[in-house]
């Protein structure tokens, strides 16, 4: 009896994309100026175009008019990356792991806040359970960014924040934002 044929030694296509893969994707995508310029911009609110991410990941091109933001949210078990293609974005994030379930409000300890500014061409990757809000604080300039998540987002938990108190407001599932 003969052994089954072994697969070709180089077949990395089924591997789950890593944070580095996603960051590489958003960087390459942001360099496609025609694609970036194709995003419709609306001064009244954010705009989105869904992209094909690498390895089955979920990807988006997002336009941010001045003064818009996401509000605090997380991405459950997905890892991700995003990068400013034009304009500048501010990210506020928490250097803390939140309990996944069973709470409505949470008192954050001092010192868990992080902030960074992403100017055009700058991005970041993040791991599972990352909690953040992203804002365009400019009063005059639109920002455009590229985002990728893997696995595709199963849910987003949204929070409000008053001082150090984080309150779970809603859980959105894909059908809510399609
Ligand atoms: Fe996010």
How would you describe what is shown here?
This protein has 178 residues and is mainly beta. It is 12% helix and 41% strand. The protein contains 3 helices and 12 strands. It has helices at 19-30, 33-38, 174-177; strands at residues 47-52, 58-64, 72-74, 79-86, 88-94, 105-107, 113-119, 123-126, 131-135, 143-150, 156-162, 165-172. The strands form 2 sheets. The protein has a 7-stranded antiparallel β-sheet. It has a 5-stranded antiparallel β-sheet with strand order 1-2-10-4-8, covered by helices on one side. Strand 11 (156-162) and strand 12 form a beta hairpin. It starts with 18 loop residues before the first helix and ends with a helix. The mean pLDDT is 92. Fe (ii) ion (FE2) is lined by residues 70, 73, 75, 132.
Structure at a glance:
By secondary structure, the chain is mainly beta. It has three helices and twelve strands. The structure holds fe (ii) ion.
Number of beta-strand segments: 12
The share of residues in extended strands comes to 35-45%
Q: What is the share of helical residues?
A: 10-25%
How far apart the termini lie comes to 52 Å
Low-pLDDT regions? none
Can you count the helices?
3
Look at the helices and sheets and give the structural class: mainly beta
Radius of gyration, in angstroms, nearest whole number: 18 Å
Biggest β-sheet: count, sense, barrel? 7 strands, antiparallel
Categorize the overall geometry. Answer: globular
Reading side by side through the largest sheet, how are the strands ordered?
6-12-11-3-9-5-7
Name the hetero compounds present. fe (ii) ion
The multimeric state of the shown protein is single chain
Mean pLDDT over all positions: 92
- Spell the H/E element sequence: HHEEEEEEEEEEEEH
């Amino acid at each position: 009896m003969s052994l089954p044929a072994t697969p070709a030694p180089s077949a990395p296509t089924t591997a789950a994309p890593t944070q580095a893969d996603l960051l590489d994707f958003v960087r390459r995508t942001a360099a496609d100026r025609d694609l970036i310029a194709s995003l419709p911009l609306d001064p009244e609110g954010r705009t989105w175009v869904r992209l094909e991410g690498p390895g089955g990941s979920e990807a988006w091109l997002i336009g941010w008019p001045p003064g818009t933001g996401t509000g605090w949210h997380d991405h459950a078990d997905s890892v991700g990356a995003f990068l400013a293609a034009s304009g500048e974005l501010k990210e506020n994030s928490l250097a803390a792991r939140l309990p996944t379930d069973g709470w409505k409000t949470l008192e954050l300890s001092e010192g868990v806040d992080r902030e960074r500014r992403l100017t055009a061409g700058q991005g970041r990757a993040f791991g599972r359970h990352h909690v953040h809000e992203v804002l365009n604080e400019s009063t005059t300039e639109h920002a455009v960014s590229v985002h990728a998540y893997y696995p595709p987002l199963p849910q987003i938990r949204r929070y409000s924040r008053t001082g150090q108190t984080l309150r779970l407001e809603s859980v959105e599932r894909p059908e809510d934002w399609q």
